[in-house]
Structures are given as structure tokens and as C-alpha cells.
């Protein structure tokens, strides 16, 4: 026994008894977290982007627990996190562009969608039945050490209940799952928004499926070609790119320079607003700082139970593309 109980119960609903656990015990070492994961349970861990809810990607029962804990639709596939390129090469086929991107940006906040190798060991649930796998090597050293210690790729979506705000601290993960999921604390995430997801078309083009912590301009600069954003209805798309996502409890109102007094305000750059409930993503207008603060500030404002959070205009260049993407989804009508 690893001494860690979680509320996750993979039996059919009719057989399930109420959760016996009074809360997960949190691993304090990489070895303890690895033991939990090797035993086929889930464990959350920090990456440089956001916290991930990890499970052994080769163990179908373990991966199922991720979908259950998050209440995530099964059609939405997961990212496999690898310790190094050697591990990644065992799972997917790299084309020349992917090779170039991997050399330049891994370890780091970039996810590549590539064809699965035949006879790979990845559980079907990870890819939701697709013949491609989303894969990345995180920059966070503790995350890579954890994957190495497990000896298997880790499937890990963001460690938050499906549809709600992503978590960039261990405390946000614990609160999101009511303390029922073990978390290996890795401190605050340094990038603060999810990885940039790239896919490849048959004509040698690279397509951005999700804006993220690696700015699109850097990818275009490396490759010397445009990297278009996948249209929502394109043949290649990320199944999980739901319009309403990353949502706080409060409503969001975007591009607001003069918030109403009764609104909470998420400011960016210098502001004359004096709202009693206000957080500034970056007083100096630094998009890197703003991305790092985005989810933490949204969680903090949401905790004050405002009717509405007004959000300042944010530039769309660099990391601004990812920040605006998350804000637009957070503001979208809830389905
Ligand atoms: O930074 C990140 O990427 C974080 C950390 C934990 O690594 N993970 C993350 O995972 O954001 P998640 O599950 O929240 O988002 C993964 C996205 C989803 O939109 C999913 O649809 C897409 O990746 N995806 C996964 N596999 C895919 C595939 N084979 N083809 C296209 N999209 C895929
Ligand atoms: Mg997510």
C-alpha cells in the first residue's frame, strides 16, 4: 500500500459506495509521487505551464481515473508527457519539421501532435481513439524527474475539474478537487498558461491548434513560415477546444477600460481604476508576467464572489494571444 487513498472509484456507478477517503495525503517527495503513479493511481504535479493531473499513460485503468476525477468528456484526448526525446521517439513518428521544433523548444511549453507508432504502449483512452498522440517534454525539472522515476510517459490534462479555471499552484489543485487528489507541490508555475499545441498538415505546413506559452511568432521565426491558427471547423483540430472553458464562477466582461464600481477588475498596465476588488496582471504591461499571473488572479477575484469580473484590454501579440484565448473562452456563454 502506498498509504494514499483517493475518492476515485472506477467501478460502474451502481456499485460505487460513497468515498471513504477523508482527503488525499500529499506526497512530499518525487519517489512517493512515483509510487502512487506506478500503482495505477492519479497524482497531480507541477509543470512550467499549469499543474497536470497525471497517470501512467500505458495503464488504461489509471487513465480512466483522470477522466473520472475531472469529469472530462471521453472524446477529449490527453497529452502524454515524456522525460526526454528518447521516450518520445518510442511513441510517435517525427517528421523533419517536428524534429526541428523539438530540438529548438523542448524541454518546454510546446505540444506536438504526431502519428502514433504501430505497437505503441499508450492506452487508447489517452488518444480518445485517434491515430495521433499529443506529446510534450516539460521544462520543469521536477516534472521530468517524476516521469523518469515512474519510467513511463504520464498522461496529464490540466489539474482542474473540466471546464473550470486551470491551476497554477498546488493549493488551487487541492481546492479544485476538494482535497481528494494527491498533489506533488512544485511551487507556482513559471509560465502560467498551457502549452502551445502544434499539428502538421499533409502539405508540410504547421498549424497551431491552441495558443499557449510558446508564442506563435517564435515558431514562425524558427521555421521561416506562417503558422496559421486552426479554424474551429478545420479537418485538423484539438477536440478539447470547447468554446466555453477555463470558466470562473463569475461572469467575465472583456476589453473594459473603465470598470463599474460594483465589478471586480482584472487590470493590465497602468490604470486609473480604483475598484475595491482589483488585481493587476502586470503593472508595467509585461505579457510574460501577465500570463504567469492570469489564473492565480482569476481564482483570487472569483473567490470574492463578484457578480462580474471586468477585464482590461490585453495586446494580442506574443503571449497575449494565449491570454486572450483563455479570457475569451472564460467569457463565452456556458453550455
Ligand atoms: O500545458 C499543458 O499543455 C498542460 C500541462 C499539464 O502539460 N496540459 C493541458 O492539457 O493543457 P489539457 O488536457 O487541458 O489540454 C490538452 C489539449 C486538449 O484541447 C485536447 O483536445 C488536445 O490537447 N489534444 C490532445 N490530444 C490530441 C490529438 N491527438 N489531436 C489533437 N488535439 C489533441
Ligand atoms: Mg485544460
Mean pLDDT equals: 91
Widest beta sheet: strand line-up = 7-1-2-6-3-5-4-8-9
**What composes the largest sheet?**
9 strands, mixed
**Backbone shape:** globular
- Please mark out the parts with pLDDT under 50 across 5 or more consecutive residues, or reply none: 1-22
C-alpha-based Rg, rounded: 20 Å
Number of helices: 10
Name every ligand kind in the structure: threonylcarbamoyladenylate, magnesium ion
Protein structure class: alpha/beta
- Beta strand count: 13
Distance between the termini: 41 Å
The helix content, as a percent range, equals: 25-40%
Encode the helix/strand succession as letters: HEEHEHHEHEHEHEEEHEEEHEH
Per DSSP, what share of the residues sits in E-state strands of 2 or more residues? Answer: 5-15%
Describe the structure in your own words.
By secondary structure, the protein is of the alpha/beta class. It is 27% helix and 15% strand. It contains ten helices and 13 strands. The strands form two sheets. A nine-stranded mixed beta sheet has the order 7-1-2-6-3-5-4-8-9, with helices on both faces. The chain has a four-stranded parallel beta sheet with strand order 10-13-11-12, covered by helices on one side. Strand 1 (43-45) and strand 2 form a beta hairpin. Helix 1 packs across helix 6. The N and C termini lie far apart (41 Å). The model is unreliable at 1-22 (pLDDT under 50). The structure holds threonylcarbamoyladenylate (TXA) and magnesium ion.
Amino acid at each position: 500500500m502506498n498509504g494514499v487513498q483517493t475518492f476515485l472509484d472506477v467501478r460502474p456507478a451502481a456499485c460505487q459506495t460513497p468515498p471513504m477517503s477523508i482527503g488525499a495525503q500529499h506526497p512530499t517527495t518525487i519517489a512517493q509521487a512515483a509510487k502512487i503513479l506506478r500503482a495505477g493511481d492519479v497524482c497531480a504535479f507541477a509543470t512550467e505551464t499549469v499543474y497536470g493531473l497525471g497517470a501512467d499513460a500505458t495503464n488504461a485503468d489509471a487513465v480512466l481515473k483522470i477522466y473520472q476525477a475531472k469529469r472530462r468528456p471521453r472524446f477529449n484526448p490527453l497529452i502524454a508527457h515524456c522525460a526526454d526525446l528518447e521516450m518520445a521517439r518510442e511513441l510517435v513518428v517525427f517528421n523533419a519539421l517536428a524534429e526541428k521544433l523539438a530540438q529548438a523548444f523542448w524541454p518546454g511549453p510546446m505540444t506536438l501532435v504526431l502519428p502514433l507508432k504501430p505497437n505503441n504502449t499508450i492506452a487508447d483512452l489517452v488518444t480518445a481513439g485517434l491515430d495521433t498522440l499529443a506529446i510534450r517534454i516539460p521544462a520543469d525539472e521536477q516534472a521530468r524527474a517524476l516521469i523518469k522515476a515512474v519510467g513511463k510517459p504520464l498522461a496529464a490534462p490540466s489539474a482542474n475539474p473540466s471546464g473550470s479555471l486551470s491551476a497554477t499552484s498546488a493549493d488551487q489543485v487541492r481546492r479544485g478537487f476538494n482535497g481528494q487528489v494527491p498533489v506533488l507541490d512544485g511551487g507556482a508555475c513559471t509560465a502560467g498558461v498551457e502549452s502551445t499545441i502544434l499539428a502538421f498538415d499533409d502539405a508540410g505546413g504547421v498549424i497551431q491548434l491552441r495558443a499557449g506559452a510558446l508564442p506563435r511568432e517564435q515558431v514562425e521565426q524558427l521555421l521561416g513560415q506562417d503558422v496559421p491558427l486552426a479554424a474551429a471547423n478545420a479537418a485538423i483540430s484539438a477536440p478539447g477546444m470547447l468554446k466555453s472553458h477555463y470558466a470562473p464562477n463569475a461572469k467575465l466582461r472583456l476589453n473594459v477600460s473603465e470598470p463599474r464600481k460594483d465589478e471586480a477588475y482584472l487590470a493590465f498596465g497602468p490604470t486609473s481604476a480604483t475598484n475595491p476588488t482589483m488585481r493587476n496582471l502586470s503593472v508595467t504591461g509585461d505579457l510574460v508576467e501577465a500570463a504567469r499571473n492570469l489564473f492565480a488572479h482569476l481564482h483570487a477575484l472569483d473567490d470574492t464572489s463578484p457578480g462580474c469580473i471586468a477585464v482590461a484590454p490585453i495586446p494580442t501579440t506574443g503571449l497575449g494571444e494565449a491570454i486572450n484565448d483563455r479570457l475569451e473562452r472564460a467569457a463565452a456563454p456556458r453550455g
